[in-house]
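hey m, so remember when u said the tokens were messed up on ur end? i reran from scratch. heres the input so u can diff it against urs
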Amino acid sequence: MIDPLQRWAEYGEKPDYAGLLTFGGACYTEDPAALEDVDVAIVGAPTDDLVSDRPGTRFAPRAIRAASCPPGPHLEAGIDAFAELKIVDFGDAAVVPADAERSHRAIEATVKQVLAADALPVILGGDHSITEPNVRACAAVHGPIGLVHFDTHTDTGTEVFGVSRSHGTPMYRLVEAGWIDPKRYVQIGLRGYWPGENEFGWQRAKGITSYFMHDVRELGIAVVVDRTLEVVGEGPVFLTVDVDVLDPAYAPGTGTPEPGGMTPGELLPAVRRLAAGLELVGADVVEVIPTSPGSADLTALVADRIVRELLTGLALRKRDERSAS
């Protein structure tokens, strides 16, 4: 019989409630030099100072890590992302409570460290305002990038409650600043009662593509993904998933829930296909408000699986590229 400590060390087999809390049990480092030869670095962005409704997403990176399951093969895709990719947990950005500007600078700096090592950053939010520093860091390296955006809201407001920097304004700010190419920007899952004609008029003028929930229902998520791949095309792209794109029955822990959303059975394979089919340079999952510890937290659990599907898609893409070479 193998000693349990030896099994932990050699096989990575340990209960998900034991040991250092990292995403999927990945190795932990805060040293940029340790990112050499790394494929993916998980980064936490625990800040929620720019929310317009319920706070609490600052606790999400820790909760998502706690909800993450040990490595293993994806039963449908037939691949283990943790075996195919070198994945590390790069810890959390050095956010500053009550100072959103300094927190955003810290997030951007941390993401830039990952990119400088030629690794792909996957950021655990945090509220949706963190997409602004995440995308800025990626676009500083790659130039204007495409964006695939799962959300119930467009987040293209010029302001929310008179404030121009908010979790409801990052996409407007990024497009206007030239960091995102609006003709390669696709929104999926929109519904509800915000925003209004001013925002959608601006989006149409910019050439942004929007798929509402009625499109997902009538066309089917597979068709929506096919069309998204066509619109975004070749070139660098960022993927952002606001967990409120899901119906609140599946993700109750979020600040601005909206009934009538997607199911995990629609979202998870869509994320996997997009990660496999696009030239991703970064991704984030945002707006999780945990309410229970570990995998008992339904929203943190589904957020973990969103990241795992993303990693599975990246692993499939890497395997296909290796086979083609």
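this time it looks ok to me. The first strand starts at residue 27 and ends at 28. if urs says something different then somethings off w ur setup not the seq
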